[in-house]
Amino acid sequence: MTAVTDQDHTEHADHPGEGTVQDDRSVSQDRRRLDGRGLPEGGDAGEAPGAVHRKGDPSEGSARGGHTEEPEAGAERAGPDGRVEGELRGGPDGRSGVPEGHAGSTPRAGERSAPETRGAEPGTGAGDDVRARGGDDARARGRQDLRARGGDQEPVRGADDARARGRDDVRARGAEAASSGDDGPDVPDGSSPPWDDGLIARRVNENGGAAEPAVVLESRTGVGGGPQGVAPLAYDGPLRSRLDALRELVGLSRARLDSRTLAEAGRVLDEAAARRKLSGQHTVVAIAGATGSGKSQLFNALAGVTISETGVRRPTTAAPIACSWSDGGASLIERLGIPPRLRRRPVQSPESEEQLRGLVLVDLPDHDSAALQHREQVDRVLRLVDAVIWVVDPEKYADAVLHERYLRPMAGHAEVMFVVLNQTDRLPGEAADLVLDDLRRLLDEDGIALSEYGEPGATVLALSALTGDGVGELREALGQFVGERGAAARRISADVDAAACGLRPVYSAGRRTGLSEQAREEFSARLADAVGATAAGEAAERAWLRNANRACGTPWLRLWRWFQDRSEPPTGRLPLRAQADAEATARQRVEHAVRTVAEQASDGLPAAWAQAVREAAVRGAQGLPEALDGLAARAGTLFPSRPPRPGWWPAAVLVQASMTLLQVVGGLWLVAQIAGVMAPNLGVPVLLMVAGIVGGPLVEWSCRMAARGPARRYGQEAERRLREAAAGCGRARVLDPVAAELLRYREVREQYVRVTGVGAAPR
Amino acid sequence: MLQNSPEIGHSSHVVTLDVRPQLLDALSALRDRVAAARFPLPLAGAPRARANRDELLAQLDDYLVPRLRQPEAPLLAVVGGSTGAGKSTLVNSLVGRRVSEAGVLRPTTRTPVLVCHPEDQHWFSGMRVLPDLTRVWTPHQDVGDDLLLPDENPARVLRIETADTLPPGLALLDAPDVDSLVADNRVLAAELICAADIWVMVTTAARYADAVPWHMLRTAKEYDATFVTVLDRVPHQVVAEVSRQYGALLTKAGLGDVPRFTVPELPESAWGGGLLPATAVAPLRSWLVHHVQDPGARQHAMGRTVYGILDSLTSRMPELAGATAQQYAAALRLTAAVDGAYDSEHARVRGRLQAGAVLAGDALKRWRAFPLDCTAGELLDALVESLSSLIVCAVTAADERIGDAWRREPAADADGLADPDATRESAEHRIGLAVRRWRRELEEYAEEEVRGLERSPAPDPELIAALVATALLGGRRARPAGEGLAERLGAHGALRLRDRGGRLLAEHVDGVLHAERERRLAPLDGLDVHAEPQAELIAALSLLQKER
């Protein structure tokens, strides 16, 4: 056992250390995982010995189990003063319990108060805890004497439930130690008010005899039955994976969404984790309803004894009252924040004990009276219980506040819902059925699935708590419901459904999302426009063609052109052309291209992700024009101002020259004949000359034809290079970050689909 | 069966001494102002303001104005309360006959029922009060049958019954539930209560601590209306205790002096839909009869409600005025966001133009190739395209900026206010049109200039236009274009052409951006949110106060 303890200790101690190194998200995840895993182990280890010990002093066994761990843990959290005291009290035997006590309390503290503050300022952490559970402080006080007597000598851990209690005691004690040490400036709330509660609690414990014998009973069976006593709740596979997915989802999207959006999901996770640590053998059922509907009456009817005050005074019940049919549910009740003085036991009768075993019934105040704090309490408790019995009466069953404020939003929780029409004794004869049908109709309109013909859904019953009519039926239904032990998981599952449904607008896109190939191409084309690829290509083609013409043209034509060029003033050409331009890229086109592509990419995405995509695009676009400028400049140097000449040019030039030569020779020959130097022979020189005159333009024309292909290729090559360079630049700077962001969204979306579950259609 | 005669309501010419015509005029002016108040922007306070306005309007139309015009009309007592409080049973018992359907299914009363003495029927069959409810009139017998025509909206009709057991001068109205699950019923109930001279609030032993009825009671107190409360369906074992506790709650709320009647729960009152014995409702009945028949009491009851409502205007009108002011402020903020975005984009466009940003990319490449490898037409095309892309970019950037600013404004969620996507393509189209028009005009200028030139050979007008455009759009980089222009046209002509072209350009750019801004603001202008209603409301109120 010591080995287990040690292992436990190191595990818990290590994690926070790692956590500080890692980023924030993984810390919280680790911590949650830690909650889930660390505790059951400790619980298993501690179970048997705790039970053995409690045999001797049953009513206080749980307290003692906790108290052994208490001094060190309490002192650590309360500060130096507390520490001294704790060690004094702990004694040599008590020390072996220390690591486990410390380890056990760590994750819970991390969950309740902010992790950072817990590490840095133990004192305030403890203060928070004390404020949260003043009642437990009182309990601890009540048992102080016992603890002083002999608690220290037992290095024994209780079962899980006992540990939970013990830990709370630890917390309270720690604060107490601190306050007694230095008058507790940091725990102002924890010291005085609970004292009164403590007195009352003690008195109730002494007077309300029902509670203590029952504890005896329970711990005895616990000894015999072993794990059957108070095993923590276990979720089934699908639910667990959905919770994991939700946790993952929250972690993934924390950077993108504001905390308010995620608050509900976080709350569900916290509640699921908290509920999981508590007893799975118990089902907490709240009785809720309007004022005067007879909640307390029904509560009493189920308990078989008048526990909750009933009356004509409205509103009657002001604070929730709990009633537990079997033991081990104390921590559950504690979670609801119901102080010990408001915890009761039903009347002892074997058959009701058997039927409703594991039921923890909570009587709530009304939700519709002028007393606002009642409604707040109802809202708070309703979030924590496993199931709800809605009590309505013939007068109020169609109240807007019930349906609009509670039933409609909770429609997804139909499976853990009973709707009970009370006070049927006020209805004559068949009217009860009419009203019940009408109630069913209204519930149906609220979107609540009704459990008819064995389908899952809310159970609707009519009864009269006053006469007892139909109470048996409810008891039977409740007994079956509680016996299934599935309510807590179903409730959590419905919570997850509701949270997923609430998150739907931030995760789910209306249509297919992503960047289409067409959009990418458009973007590249726009960038190419911005650097002027088309124009550059055309210019290059024409320049080549011009050069070819110039090279292969007849000399006469060249002469004429040269003359014309001289007469016309030059324009934008040279000499300024040689220098590189400062802003060769059209900034507005780049900006527009980026905006368009960002819009296309974020089209249909939920707002937060669309924003992220746009930001990624804009971030990538910074410096893009400059990069494109550089690109264009490099491409310019790659293409020298004089295009390369193909191999056949010299031949063409030679032919052209020979044609000119032919003309000249023919001409000279003719002149010579005219001058009489040579024998008159008209045929040959004319032929030569005509061949030269016709051949020159012919060669020029054919050269031009031949040059067209290479010129086009050359221009296209120039255009392609620019285009590709611009596209590559755009891809690296804009498209890739956008795609990464889209991928992240897709991941989250998949996670979200996992949260909604395969079978559960999102409502 | 169905009577709908709006003319009868305006036949009155009787004005009593204490109601001067000026007061009525001031009141109807105020009523018009209230009716004209609009809250189209979805601000946080807008739904409340709308509800307040509707309520105030209902009170003015259904009660205050008709009452002041005709003080001699019968008193109307509206029976209101939660669902299942037994309102219909109470009305039936007061009348002594089943006039309104009672039952166990909730909500029972979906059609309001007005009961009056046969002699008084003409007061209600017209549209004097509750003008927007259709009157349905049934002869006495078959109450249980389906009264509604199939296509009639049950919430918007008023059934009128006559019973001679009621004293003349008193009318009872059985209203639907104030907290009904049917939202229309709730609205209607509130409206009906606004029309009452006497409010009869019914609650029950199980409900007397409910929040909704208490809200109603507080409202009644706020308006200082004449009202009585009825604690209905009290099981007789606990009559004393419940009654005492209810009294204590009322006293605590400052309503201790309100007449309070207790009606026990009897088997008849429950679910048979039957009538309570006359003794059970006798005190309430005699109280009502007394207030109807005793002139002093009648005057008092009526006057209290009337003046209560008039007094409540003092706080309600400024509230409405405040809400309109909020609307106006929100509209101003939205407009300012648009103006700011377009102003800054306009400035940016001007800066970019001056820096020669248009002569970049394609246009720059063309210019570099000009004139050897590029024609003047191509250069002009490239320039025009580049210019239009600059303006499109500015407009979309402004839209984005507006989107960002508006996202923080709740008022921007109003219908049809933000849909830039729908107009994006057409914006490009419009800008393209404007820029091409500029090009055409520029070419005309160039032609004019060339024609006026007595040099031969005359330069090509298109070439001149291309050079001018380059010089205008190219900034420093296009200096050679300016030089070329001067060579061809002479320094004077070149300068003149550049000036004209520059003015034309500025004109077109301003025009395009202005048009886009107006287009963006049009839906907001369409909502018609102005500063005036605030002042008008306050002015109407002060006029009314002066006339009282």
TrEMBL record, chain A:
Compositional bias annotation for Basic and acidic residues: 1-38, 66-92, 109-119, 128-174
InterPro entries (alphabetical): GTP-bd, GTPase_Era-like, P-loop_NTPase
Annotated Gene3D superfamilies: P-loop containing nucleotide triphosphate hydrolases (3.40.50.300)
Domain of life according to the entry: Bacteria
Region: Disordered, residue numbers: 1-200
Entry keyword set: Membrane, Transmembrane, Transmembrane helix
Cited Pfam families: MMR_HSR1 (PF01926)
Comp. bias (Low complexity): 175-198
UniProt-recorded name of the protein: 50S ribosome-binding GTPase
